Amino acid sequence: MKRIVVFCGASSGTDPVYEQQAYLLGKTLAAQNIELVYGGAKVGVMGAVANGVMENNGRAIGVLPRFMRKKEVAHENLTELILVDTMHERKKIMNDLSDGIITLVGGFGTMEEFFEMLTWAQLGLHPKPTAILNTNGFYNDLLTLIDSMIAKGFVRESNKDLLVISENIEDLLQKMRGYQAPPIPQWITKEEL
């Protein structure tokens, strides 16, 4: 893995551990010579992961919609800041630039990014590891919801294998390195199109 996209919040959250873990992830990426691709902000968890990379001689590429440049306070000290027109263009470029996906803590925007990448994996649109760093059990309720979706017939049990989950950065990266995309059953045949 040469580049990992990290989805996370532009807020700091209520517990300092969220920014601490984001910074440590950035520092670890820099130490392992893995470039960061992320949302381009200098605030909150986003800023912490970027600072972790940049302050440890790593490389960070931010992708930020122009209309959010002031709202999210663009990080001007990155290796590269790519400005785009739309949120969809942002996600597409972030995905195109990356070899894997890590989701840290965040809100609605983080969830939207995570679920779009997970859906793309489910549809066979990319074979990349889609990972969650479950800091302090932040995503335990989401994982319970996914189990409920499986139990109620809305998600296939095999699709849970699309997720890489850990509470530990090194363990998560190791699991991502060993990830093999599961076979994707065909949802629609050519005849059905």
TrEMBL record:
The Gene Ontology biological process terms listed for this entry are: cytokinin biosynthetic process
Please state what class of enzyme this protein is: hydrolase
- Give the UniProt keywords, A-Z: Cytokinin biosynthesis, Hydrolase
Among InterPro entries, the record links this protein to: LOG, LOG_fam
The UniProt record lists the keyword Hydrolase: yes
For this UniProt entry, the molecular function terms from Gene Ontology, in alphabetical order, are:
AMP nucleosidase activity
Entry annotated with the keyword Hydrolase: yes
What cellular component GO annotations does this protein have? Answer: cytosol
Any Pfam family the entry gives: Lysine_decarbox
What's the protein name?
A: Cytokinin riboside 5'-monophosphate phosphoribohydrolase
What organism is this sequence from?
A: Flexibacter flexilis DSM 6793
